[in-house]
Amino acid sequence: LEVRFKNVTGDIILSSGVIAYMGAFVTSYREQALSDWSKLLRAKSIPCTDGYSLRATLGDEVKVRAWTISRLPNDSFSIANAIMLSRSNRWPLMIDPQGQANKWVKKMEAKGGLKVVKLNQPTFARAIEMSLQLGNPVLIENVVEAIVPVLEPVLLKQFVKAGGGYTVRFGDSTVEYNFDFRLYLTTKFRNPHYAPETGVKVNLRTFMATADGLQDQMRGIA
């Protein structure tokens, strides 16, 4: 406990960097970035844990177990993605060509009345508007490389206090906002090219089966 307390400042700085910047990258790039960041911290006399792990720093093993039961792949890469998703202030946009994130979100949020929609559905706007008010989770599938403008106030969480609650602009309407609402976006594009302005509205996450991830899964099965 004393060692963890000593390293907590550096570990939280590393965790903040991972959550803010590393979601879109694969394991090898994340590990290299963490190694470089750790050296910079030590150069500034800020201690951090050797062999830093996001799971050890911010992970909740009870939640991790619930995620794997809900079909999240049981490898370090996927678990780190889930921790980043749960700790980020922005709604996640998940690069998900194999459908791993889709399956996980559908299973995890099934009891909460998850609404699954696509941007080209005629009922898309109505489903989002009702979910904002009722607090239902929403999964938007097959997002293309441009996000429709109607979602911008929701993505940026532009809430306005009104009376005893909060409202948010959605299309031509101002709707009451329920803070139980959760939004997930997924794309099947393997290597999408999102504009910089999109990157500041969402938190990109890569959910792809990697060689490292598959090896972790095989060890878990064994």
Structure overview:
With 222 residues, this protein is of the alpha/beta class. 46% of the residues lie in helices and 17% in strands. The chain contains 10 helices and 8 strands. The strands form 2 sheets. A 5-stranded parallel beta sheet has the order 2-3-7-1-8, sandwiched between helices. The longest helix has 20 residues, at 2-21. The radius of gyration is 19 Å and the shape is globular. The two termini are 33 Å apart. Mean pLDDT is 89; it is low at 210-222.
Task: Encode the helix/strand succession as letters.
Answer: HHHHHEHEHEHEEEEHEH
Helix content: 40-55%
Mean pLDDT figure: 89
Q: Spans with pLDDT under 50 lasting ≥5 residues?
A: 210-222
Largest sheet: 5 strands, parallel
The shape is: globular
Characterize the quaternary organization of these chains.
Answer: single chain
Rg, Cα atoms, Å = 19 Å
Task: Please report the number of helical segments.
Answer: 10
Distance between the termini: 33 Å
Give the strand tally. 8
Structural class: alpha/beta
Hey, roughly how much beta strand do the residues contain?
A: 15-25%
Question: Reading side by side through the largest sheet, how are the strands ordered?
Answer: 2-3-7-1-8
